[in-house]
């Protein structure tokens, strides 16, 4: 299982800024190891986020995203105490879900 995501969600008025740092190696499938063999692709392919259980974001990613990717987005009509949940799935079938409370 991958390390937990770092999720920070801060309210400012009716807007909530959500920052997510995901722990993942993110291999593109184009790099070669020391022996000259291609390192197999291994990257996050799907990301989704919910606000109090309601889906607010979906994204499809590929191998071009950097190691340990960072994502930021802004929600409207949020407030302190709301729950933000982020889920990623990778091309090998692994997944991770973490949750944060808006401060």
Kindly describe this structure.
The radius of gyration is 16 Å and the shape is elongated. It starts with 5 loop residues before the first strand and ends with a strand. The protein has strands at residues 6-12, 15-21, 44-51, 54-60, 70-76, 83-90, 95-101. The protein has no helices and 7 strands. It has a 4-stranded antiparallel β-sheet, with no helix packed on it. A 3-stranded antiparallel β-sheet has the order 1-2-5, with no helix packed on it. Helix content is 0%, strand content 50%. It has 103 residues and is an all-beta fold. The protein has one domain (6-29, 40-101): Immunoglobulin-like, CATH 2.60.40.
- Work out the helix count: 0
> Under CATH, the topology is which?
Immunoglobulin-like
Radius of gyration: 16 Å
CATH superfamily: Immunoglobulins
pLDDT < 50 runs, ≥5 residues: none
Query: What series of H and E elements makes up the topology?
Result: EEEEEEE
Arithmetic mean of pLDDT: 93
Q: How much helix is in the residues?
A: under 10%
Structural class designation: mainly beta
Q: What is the general shape? A: elongated
**Distance linking N and C termini:** 27 Å
Number of beta-strand segments: 7
Biggest sheet descriptor: 4 strands, antiparallel
Count of discrete domains: 1
Question: Strand order within the widest sheet?
Answer: 4-3-6-7
Beta-strand share of residues: over 45%
Which architecture per CATH? Sandwich
CATH class identity: Mainly Beta
């Amino acid at each position: 299982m991958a390390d937990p995501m770092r999720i920070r969600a801060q309210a400012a008025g009716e807007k909530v800024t959500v920052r997510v740092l995901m722990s993942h190696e993110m291999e593109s499938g184009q790099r070669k190891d020391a022996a000259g063999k291609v390192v197999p692709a291994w990257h996050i392919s799907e990301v989704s986020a919910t606000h109090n259980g309601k889906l607010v974001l979906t994204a499809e990613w590929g191998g071009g995203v950097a190691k340990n990717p960072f994502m930021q987005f802004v929600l409207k009509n949020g407030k302190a105490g709301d729950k933000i949940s982020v889920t990623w799935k990778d091309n090998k079938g692994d997944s991770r879900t973490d949750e944060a409370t808006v401060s």
